[in-house]
Protein 1
Amino acid sequence: MDNRPIGVFDSGLGGLTAVRELRRILPGEDIIFFGDTGRVPYGSRSPHIIKEYAKQCMDFLEKQDVKMILVACGTVSSVLGEKIGEGRKIPCIGVLEPTVKAAVSATKNKNIGLIATMATVASGSYEKLTAKLMPEANFTGKGCPLFVPLVENGYFASDCEVTRLVAKDYLSAFEGKDIDTLILGCTHYPLLYNLIDSITEYKLNLIDSGKEAALGAKALLEERDMLSGWRKIGGMKFFVTDKEEGFAKLGKEFLGEELSDVTRVEIEEL
Ligand code: DGL
C-alpha cells in the first residue's frame, strides 16, 4: 500500500483525459497534475527540446513526493520511448504501450490509423510498436498540428465549425485505407472524441490514449501493491506554468469537477 499521490504530466489540458479516467477507476487516489501550459504545444518542437522540458517537469513532480509518474503525453512518451523512467526512483509509465495494446486488440481488419502530433508521427513510435505486436497490420499515421492549439483555446465542442473543418481535412488522409481503428495518439485529442466520432460516422474504434494510459497506471500500481488505502475521495492539485484561470475554467468544463487548487509555477524555477 502507498498513500502518496499519483503524479500526472502533460504539456497542457490533454493530460486531463488521463485524470478523468483515473478519477473514475481509482477514486481514492490523490492526484498531482503538472501542465506545462507556458510551453504548450510540445508537438511541433525538436526531440532534444521535448526531452529537456520533460525532464524539468518530471523532476518537479518527483520533488512533490509522488509515488509514480504517468506521462500523459503522447509526444513525450514517443520521444523518451523506453527511457521514460531512466534515472528515476519511482515507476514511470507513458501512453504508448497501453494505447497500442488497446488498438491491436480492437482491430478486426488489421488496418490501423493514428492521429498525433508531428513529433509523435515523426518518431515512428506508434508504428514500430504496432508492427512488433501485430506484424501483419497496415498502419497509416497523420500529424494534426492544429488540434492542440484548438483544444487549448477551448474549441473542443463537437459542433464547433472551425475544428470540424480542420478535422475533416486531416481525416481525409485515411480515405481508401479501410481503417477500422483510429488511435487518438495525443492526449489532447480525446477532448475531440465526439467530434471525430461524428465525422467518421461512428464507424471506427477510437482509441483514447489518455484513458488507456490511466488503465496502464492502475495495472502498474496493482502489480506493485502500491494502491492507496484511503477510504475517501482523493484530492487533486494542479500546477501550471501559465495563467491559472484559463486552465481552471477549461479544465472544469472537461472534467466536470471544480479545479479549486491550481498553482502557477515559474518556468525559471523548474
Ligand atoms: N497531449 C500532448 C500529446 O499527447 C500534446 C503535445 C503538444 O503539446 O503538442 O502529445
Protein 2
Amino acid sequence: MRPITTRFAPSPTGALHLGHAFAALTAWRAAKEASGRFLVRIEDIDSTRCRPEFEAAIFEDLTWLGLDWPIPVRRQSEHLDAYARALDSLRGRDLIYPCFCTRAEIKAEIARAGAAPHLATEGADPVYPGTCRRLSEPERAARIARGDPFALRLNLTAALEETGPLIWHDATRGTVVAEARRFGDVVLARKEMPTSYHLAVTLDDHLQGVTLVTRGEDLFEATHIQRVLQALLGLDVPNYAHHRLITDEDGRRFAKRDRAVTLAALRERGVTPAEVMAAFKAGAVARLPG
Ligand code: GLU
C-alpha cells in the first residue's frame, strides 16, 4: 500500500485566514497520524490574481502554525506543459472542442431557448447550452484562423460514454456515485489561463502521488468533474475527506478580504498557534483574543 500523502493547495491571491489554517492543519494531521507525507502546492495558474508576496506569506503562516513539508513545492505555473499534454490527449480523442461564446452570448442563448438557466450547484455559472459543440470543423477552423478568442470545453456526453459509471470514496459520505452530467461541458482551458482548476488539480494530485485529498466541503461538488478527468486521463484516484468550513460567529465563511482574521493579523495581536488549534477543537473561533 502506498503511504498516505495529503496536500494543502492554496492560491496565492491573498492572505491566509482561519479557514485556510483549518484546511492546512486537517491535511497535515491526517498525514502525520498515518506517518505519511504532507505536501504544499501553490495553485497559481491565474497570473492576473496571484502574487509572489502572497506566496511568501503563505509559507510564513504555515511555518508559524508549526507545519513542515518537503521543498521545493510544486508551483502550477511551472508545469503548464503537463496540462497542455493532457489537453492534447483529450483533443486527440475528440473529447474537447473550442467554444467562442462570451458570457453574454451564453445567457442570451439560454433565454432564446426559453429555459430557465440551469445551475449545476448554487451560485455556479449557468450550465453551458452546448452552442459551439454543434459547430462544424470548417467553422471552427475559420474562427480560429480569424483570431476569435476561445475556451476549450469538455464534451461531457462523449466523455461519459468513454468512462461509463464512476464512483469515489469520501470519508464522511462513503461511496459516492459521480454525477458529472449536470455540470455540462465544463471549461478546461482559456486563452489567458491555459488550464482550468479542475484539470490542474486532478493531474497534480496524480503526479504528486496524493492518496487522500482533504479539503473544504465547498469543493465537494468539484469532485464529480475531477473524477471524470481522472478516468479519461488514466490517473490514480485518491480518497477524499471533505471537511466542515470554519465560520465566524454569524455563521459566515471567512474570505481573503477579512483582514481581521488573517493569520498575520492574529499573530500581530499575540494569538498563538496553540490558541488557534484549541479554538478549532472547541468550535470557538469567534472567541479568539481580539
Ligand atoms: N486551490 C484551491 C483553493 O484555494 C484548492 C484546491 C483543492 O483543494 O482542490 O481553494
